[in-house]
């Protein structure tokens, strides 16, 4: 009724008549204010209701005194920000306690669907994630196996710099479960741990599928236990070593160390810039213990090569992704793969302690326990980066090996190629590969990729002129064959053979004489165990351990120079050039040998020669 009255009044007096204009403006303002304030009031009432509901839940969960700060809707439920300063407990106490289980019990949910994490920006607040919907209700198929993705042709494939590899789905957000192996900041090694049947093969299939679709990545695979990845992916890999192919595995690792050295030499240690002719090399190692473990027949040879890769390979674009059943030294060969792995992936494990072997602070960070997480669900994975940012999700299903093998056959051989001058330095590499370039004075390879002789044919090596002559006017002095020497020149062959013998003898001249009695592997393991426990051993045990000269000499020299002033552990670490934990063990052994004495405790400890002992009557 108000509108017709206003229209009639405006028609009679005119719309510019002041009482009419003021009345209309006032009515409109009141109507708009009422409309907007109704939304504000609704929001306030809803927030008040949420606070009341939280107070009820907090009381049931034993979190009296907490305050609801914010609520965020997620794909599967809600995420609460809670102020806990008035509860008398810290965020760390609550994340490590049974708060999540109490909340889940009150809401009648499985315990794993409630997670409590620390707010990294506020020590007095925590996050509580509640999944009211089942995160595993829907499968995660791989689009390349279901017809949902078209196989990319060479000209349309992406670079490794265009984005991370996609492994699966994060059900909380609906975002991809991603793995960064190389970006503009450099590379990242990856350590993977899973029990038998935990899904390592499916995960590796996803990694290989993603990596081989990039224009500037070559994948080398080592699987000495089952040989699954080299067999299934075949020619899509640039190199592979399968069951008991120990020599080939060592060759692959040797190639990697040469690539690292040559790229670092060329760039001065700067981060590698990948391209189709200078690709990132991703080395996949499955069943790590068969390559590096104590029972591996080549562990003593493979270990220093792997250590070189994980220490120096990141900037050179040579990256390792190694998987094993456990994250212990017995399986990894050393602490290096763990310490230098920027990415860590944990699939299904048998015991919670295995989580601690890979990610020591997983409970504090609120990560799920992969021994109990999503029981009965296949393909779950926890992915953690170097900054301890993590996501848990489900890996895309690539468990149908027949379908995966068919996909690998469609994908074909890699389009990327190694730098020709580096490829020529890799022993045996050119026997399988065709490098489309010219190096030095001779031709390397058979021409353009996709043409020329079939893979497996002996490929000519580049000429190396050590004496600057003798080529009788032909390319490389080899009759144009590219072998470095004319196969018909017997004198040249004799000179080459004699030179090789002399070079080998010169290399062996400085080798130590083998001991009369070899040391068994069991004795070596026992000696290492005794050394590792040197700080806790009794004196008699430590006296059975010899101190090598390269350790004892710098320590005794420094202590002699310092005299009555002695030296701190940090001084001795610097003098020996060894790690702190290693030096402390040697100091304990030397002390029990009565070579040195120590006074003080913890970081105040100082070491002296016995003749400079400030407390000569003090018991050792």
In whole angstroms, how far apart are the ends? 104 Å
- What does the radius of gyration come to? 34 Å
- Percentage of residues in helical conformation: 25-40%
Mean pLDDT across the residues is: 81
Describe the structure using short key phrases:
620 residues, FtsK domain-containing protein, single chain, Rossmann fold, alpha/beta, 10-stranded mixed sheet, 21 helices, 4-stranded antiparallel sheet, 20 strands, FtsK_dom, ATP binding
Notes on the protein architecture:
The protein has 620 residues and is α/β, with parallel strands linked by helices. Among the domains are: 165-411, P-loop containing nucleotide triphosphate hydrolases (Rossmann fold), CATH 3.40.50; 417-461, no CATH class; 463-511; 521-612, Winged helix-like DNA-binding domain superfamily/Winged helix DNA-binding domain (Arc Repressor Mutant, subunit A, Orthogonal Bundle). Helices cover 39% and strands 15% of the residues. It contains 21 helices and 20 strands. Strands 6-5-16-15-14-9-13-12-10-11 form a ten-stranded mixed β-sheet. A hairpin with a 3-residue loop joins strand 1 (67-73) and strand 2. Helix 2 (18-61) packs across helix 4 and helix 8 runs parallel beside helix 10. The longest helix has 44 residues, at 18-61. This is FtsK domain-containing protein. GO terms for molecular function: ATP binding; DNA binding. Keywords: ATP-binding, Nucleotide-binding. Residues 177-356 form the FtsK domain. ATP binds at residues 194-201.
């Amino acid at each position: 009724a108000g509108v017709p009255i206003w229209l009639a009044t405006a028609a009679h007096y005119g719309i510019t008549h002041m009482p009419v204009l003021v009345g209309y403006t006032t009515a409109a303002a009141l109507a708009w204010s009422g409309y907007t304030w109704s939304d504000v009031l609704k929001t306030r009432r809803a927030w008040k209701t949420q606070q009341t509901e939280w107070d009820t839940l907090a009381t049931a969960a034993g979190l009296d005194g907490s305050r609801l700060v914010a609520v965020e809707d997620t794909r599967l439920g809600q995420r609460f920000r809670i102020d806990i300063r008035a509860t008398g407990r810290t965020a760390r106490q609550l994340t490590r306690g049974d708060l999540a289980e109490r909340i889940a019990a009150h809401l009648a949910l499985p315990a794993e669907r409630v997670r409590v994490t620390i707010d990294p920006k506020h020590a007095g607040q925590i996050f509580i994630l509640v999944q009211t919907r089942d995160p595993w209700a829907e499968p995660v198929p791989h689009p390349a196996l279901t017809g949902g993705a078209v196989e990319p042709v060479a000209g349309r494939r992406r670079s490794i710099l265009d984005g991370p590899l996609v492994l699966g789905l994060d059900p909380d957000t609906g975002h991809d479960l991603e793995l960064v192996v190389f970006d503009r900041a450099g590379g990242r090694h990856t350590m993977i741990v899973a029990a038998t049947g935990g899904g390592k093969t499916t995960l590796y299939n996803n990694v290989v599928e993603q990596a081989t679709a990039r224009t500037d990545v070559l994948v080398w695979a080592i699987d000495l236990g089952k040989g699954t990845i080299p067999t299934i992916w075949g020619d899509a890999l640039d190199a592979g070593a399968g069951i008991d192919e120990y020599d080939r595995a060592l060759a692959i690792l040797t190639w990697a160390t040469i690539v690292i050295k040559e790229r670092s030499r060329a760039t001065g240690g700067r981060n590698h810039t990948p391209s189709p002719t200078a690709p990132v090399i991703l080395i996949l190692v499955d069943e790590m213990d068969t390559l590096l473990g104590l029972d591996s027949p080549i562990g003593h040879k493979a270990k220093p090569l792997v250590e070189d890769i994980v220490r120096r390979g990141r900037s050179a674009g040579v990256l390792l992704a190694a998987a094993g059943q456990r994250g212990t030294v017995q399986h990894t060969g050393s602490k290096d793969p763990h310490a230098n792995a920027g990415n860590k992936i944990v699939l299904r494990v048998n015991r919670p302690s295995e989580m601690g072997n890979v990610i020591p602070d997983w409970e504090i960070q609120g990560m799920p326990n992969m021994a109990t997480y999503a029981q009965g669900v296949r393909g779950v994975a926890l992915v953690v980066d170097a900054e301890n940012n993590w996501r848990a999700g489900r890996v895309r299903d690539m468990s149908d090996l027949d379908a995966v093998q068919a996909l690998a056959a469609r994908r074909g051989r890699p389009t990327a190629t190694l730098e020709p001058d580096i490829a020529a330095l890799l022993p045996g590499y050119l026997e399988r590969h065709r490098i489309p370039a010219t190096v030095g004075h001779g031709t390397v390879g058979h021409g353009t990729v996709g043409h020329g002789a079939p893979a497996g044919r002996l490929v000519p090596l580049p000429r190396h002129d050590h004496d600057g002559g003798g080529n009788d006017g032909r390319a490389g002095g080899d009759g144009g064959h590219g072998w470095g020497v004319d196969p018909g020149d017997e004198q040249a062959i004799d000179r080459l053979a004699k030179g090789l013998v002399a070079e080998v003898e010169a290399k062996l001249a400085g080798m130590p004489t083998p001991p009369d009695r070899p040391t068994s592997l069991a004795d070596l393991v026992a000696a290492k165990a005794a050394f590792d426990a040197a700080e806790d051993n009794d004196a008699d045990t430590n006296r059975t351990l010899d101190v090598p000269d390269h350790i004892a000499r710098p320590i005794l020299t420094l202590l002699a120079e310092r005299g009555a002033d002695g030296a701190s552990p940090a001084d001795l670490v610097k003098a020996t050039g060894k790690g702190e934990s290693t030096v402390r063990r040697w100091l304990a052994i030397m002390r029990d040998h009565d070579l040195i004495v120590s006074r003080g405790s913890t970081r105040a400890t100082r070491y002296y020669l016995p003749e400079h002992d400030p407390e000569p009557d003090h018991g050792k």
